[in-house]
Design a protein that fits this description.
The chain is built from 17 helices and seven strands. It is mainly alpha-helical. Helix 6 runs antiparallel to helix 11, helix 7 (105-120) runs antiparallel to helix 9 and helix 10 (181-191) runs antiparallel to helix 11 (196-230). The N and C termini lie far apart (50 Å). Keywords: Heme, Iron, Metal-binding, Monooxygenase, Oxidoreductase. InterPro entries: Cyt_P450, Cyt_P450_CS, Cyt_P450_E_grp-I, Cyt_P450_sf, Cytochrome_P450_fung.
Length: 427
């Protein structure tokens, strides 16, 4: 594929004037391909490489268990608690920050900021994307309301970028900071002499961990809940696999991953069935190219249609059916040329998501923990009739299942006891 094999030509980003007006020039995902992007990517990958996954797994497991406890007391608020868990994992890893169960100020700020970003990143949402010169007009002029929005959203973007970083520095000064990516980087920074450029780099990569990871993880986990409502047979098959291993006496851990292959199949199918970024990240050519007789000039915007790739019926038979079984025999799939693992969900080439191993592990531990102790089924209305959710998704740069209801009940009294026991283990 061009984005993979000719990455030297296809790895930049097109200019998004509104996004830049909002102050998102610090985000790795928006940077054009070049030395500044490489510095940020290298620094980010230093902390999120596959080999470092075990370092973060205790945090991921602890937050998955917190989710279990929250679902026991407030199952109807599952959407909120999924989002809280995803945020808590990333914020603890990057800033050593503990997220409150309800109305956490930083999470509210970050989610509000990300909603504005998701709106602006879609090219053409604002006229200034088509006519960049408009960014120079005064904000009071007719048609320049985007300037006022951009000014407010820039404030939110800067607060999201700076607030937690400043808090970590304050705690380090008082000796109360929790070890995390930011503290480790700042320790190295101070030992090296403390240049302003390096400090800015550290601040940027910490913030992009949340901006790039929380929303996509939430999307995949919410898709899992929707799939389980619609596919009780698949849920039962997964629970049987877990029960054969644990005999119902414990909640699985990361050490069980290789013994639970069907759980991995479910996760890959969630990533394929509803990719969190259906049009992927927009690429931009920095050189002229030619492909199959077609000239692709320098400065061309290239949009990888991830959703179409992962719903190609030749590669994924019955593509609209949620069917984790398709991934069970990868050797047979390879020989048949079908059902390859949907790596496209994480992007392409040099722009592939550098935090994909962290994201996958967060989804895995959440899915296996929930299935081990809960049954997920259709909600029941006031007349005792099932409320079957429709498979509908939001249309934006980040896709989520539209709000739906479901019934989440512990599988047994023993399962409920295991859930409560996680609080004692954390203490």
């Amino acid at each position: 594929m061009l984005l993979d094999k000719r990455g030297n030509k296809y790895s930049s980003r097109p200019e998004r004037t509104m996004v830049y007006e909002m102050g998102w020039d610090w985000a790795l995902t928006m940077m054009p391909y070049g030395p500044r992007w490489r510095r940020h990517r290298t620094k980010f990958q230093k902390h999120f490489h596959a080999s470092l996954s075990p370092l973060y797994q205790p945090t991921q497991m602890a937050e998955a268990h917190t989710l279990l406890r929250n679902l026991l007391t407030n199952p109807d608020d599952f959407n909120h608690y999924i989002r809280r868990a995803a945020a808590a994992i990333i914020l603890n890893i990057t800033y050593g920050y503990s997220v409150a169960d309800e109305h956490d100020a930083y999470v509210v700020l970050a989610n509000t900021t990300m909603r504005s970003f998701a709106q602006a990143i879609v090219f053409g949402s604002y006229l200034v994307d088509y006519i960049p010169m408009l960014k120079y007009v005064p904000s009071w002029m007719p048609g320049a309301s985007f300037k006022r929005k951009a000014r407010e959203w820039r404030r939110l973007s800067r607060e999201m970028l700076e607030n937690q970083f400043k808090l970590v520095k304050q705690r380090m000064a008082h000796g109360t900071a929790v070890s995390c990516i930011t503290t480790r980087e700042l320790d190295n920074w101070m030992e090296a002499g403390g240049s302003a450029d390096e400090e800015e780099l550290i601040m940027n990569i910490a913030a992009i961990a949340y901006a790039g990871g929380a929303d996509t993880t939430v999307s995949s986990i919410t898709s899992f809940f929707l799939a389980m409502v619609l596919s009780p047979d698949i849920q039962k098959k997964a629970q049987d696999e877990i029960d054969r291993l644990t005999t119902g006496n414990r909640i699985p851990t990361f050490a069980d991953k290789l013994s639970l292959p069907y759980i991995s199949c479910i996760i890959w199918e969630c990533l394929r069935w509803n990719p969190a970024s259906p049009l992927g990240g927009t690429h931009f050519t920095t050189e002229d190219d030619e492909y199959n007789g077609y000239r692709i000039p320098k400065g061309t915007t290239v949009i990888p249609n991830v959703w179409a790739v992962l719903h190609d019926e030749h590669t994924y038979p019955e593509p609209f059916k949620f069917n984790p079984d398709r991934f069970e025999n990868q050797e047979m799939n390879r020989l048949a040329g079908i059902n390859e693992l949907p790596q496209a969900a994480f992007g392409f080439g040099r722009r592939m998501c550098p935090g994909r191993w962290l994201a996958y592990d967060s989804i895995w531990i959440t899915v296996v923990s929930v299935l081990s102790v809960y049954n997920i089924s259709t909600a029941i209305d006031n007349n005792g009739l099932p409320i079957l959710p429709s498979v509908e998704y939001t249309s934006s740069s980040f896709s989520h299942p539209k709000p739906f209801k479901c019934r989440i009940v512990s599988r047994s009294e023993a399962a409920a006891a295991l859930i409560k026991q996680t609080a004692e283990e954390r203490a």
